[in-house]
Amino acid sequence: MTTNDTRIEVDPNLPTLRIIRDFDAPPDRVFRAWTDPDLVRRWLGPRETEMRIEQWDGRTGGGYRYAAWRDGEELARFFGSFHEVRPNERLVQTFTWEGAPDGVSLDTMVFEDLGDGRTRVTSTSVVESIEIRDMIVSSGMDKGVIEGYEKLDELLKAG
Amino acid sequence: MTTNDTRIEVDPNLPTLRIIRDFDAPPDRVFRAWTDPDLVRRWLGPRETEMRIEQWDGRTGGGYRYAAWRDGEELARFFGSFHEVRPNERLVQTFTWEGAPDGVSLDTMVFEDLGDGRTRVTSTSVVESIEIRDMIVSSGMDKGVIEGYEKLDELLKAG
User: Tens digits of per-residue pLDDT, A56-83?
Assistant: First the structure.
């Protein structure tokens, strides 16, 4: 049971999407959960889907590719690149759903040390147009984000 | 001597920058000039600088790093990742000047076949805020873009 809320903010005037979430673990552990594929696959995405990571080179200038599966069926595929992996501080990566490969987002995750073993992650996504941003928001991504972060709470709690 | 103008467009309401330029060569040759490091280093950037490519993995999920030198002195360093390399059609990459590493841009180059051995390249950059976009515009990048494209004209003509 978590008491940490996930805030999703949409700027009406910019093609950006911001997600703010606190975690009950220090920055190094939260950061590792974003960059180590064995951890990422255990929390990323909605509860009922399984993430199968096909490629993951989690360092500055590397790339990744994964698929979401449910009930033995592939639902969606995603890929991107790691622009910068700045340990325990900042992670900048690109992201595309293969179903709309021209709608690329640039995602920046900032890991802020709140003290007392807590970390705030502010994730900012920017795309080329407000229309693309609105498509992402209306895709139901909020369910995946919220459930994924709850799974991450559990993973961090389990140690 | 080129007769192809470089158009640089700034949207007042979006954190984007668009550069449109035609080249007198077919898409495959223009695309290769963007992805083959031996060609890139011969045209990228202003005339008086020399580009030293330190890393270049020009494929989807790869990364790059280069430095600009003048008169034996390093002026600036840049790095980024290749989100997608879609041959002869589309190139999506990230870009950062190391002097302001948090101001990352997502750059999409679309290669359009104009027929008669000509190609239009539309380059769209998006960043997180209009302030960052305005900093990029006021950095004097236009000189580098225009001179670089003139060098690319010469390279394509020679080649």
Answer: 999 999 999 999 999 999 999 999 999 9
What's the rounded mean pLDDT across residues A15-40?
97
Q: What is the pLDDT of residues B84-141, one digit of tens each?
A: 999 999 999 999 999 999 999 999 999 999 999 999 999 999 999 999 999 999 988 8
Task: Report the alpha-carbon distance of residue B35 to residue B155 in Å, rounded.
Answer: 14
Q: Which residues of A touch B129 (CB under 8 A)?
A: 14
Instruction: Give B3's pLDDT tier (boundaries 50, 70, 90).
Output: low
With an 8 Å Cβ cutoff, the interface of chain A facing chain B consists of: 13-16, 55, 57, 60-65, 79-84, 90, 92, 94, 96, 101-102, 104-106, 108, 124, 126-130
State the DSSP string of B129-143: -HHHHHHHHTTTHHH
For residue B62, what are the CA distances in angstroms to A81, A143, B56? Answer: 7, 31, 8
C-alpha B94/C-alpha A94 separation (Å) is 8
Domain positions in chain B are 6-44+86-158
- Assigned architecture for domain B6-44+86-158: 2-Layer Sandwich (3.30)
Burial of A38 (0-12, 13-18, 19+ CB in 10 A): exposed
The values of phi and psi at residue A19, to 5°, are -125, 125
Phi, psi of B24 (to 5 degrees): -90, 60
Where does residue B45 fall: left (phi above 0), alpha (psi -120 to 50 degrees), or beta otherwise?
Answer: left
pTM confidence score: 0.95
To the nearest whole Å, the CA of A47 is away from the closest chain B CA by: 27
Decide if A79 and B65 are in contact by the 8 Å CB cutoff: no
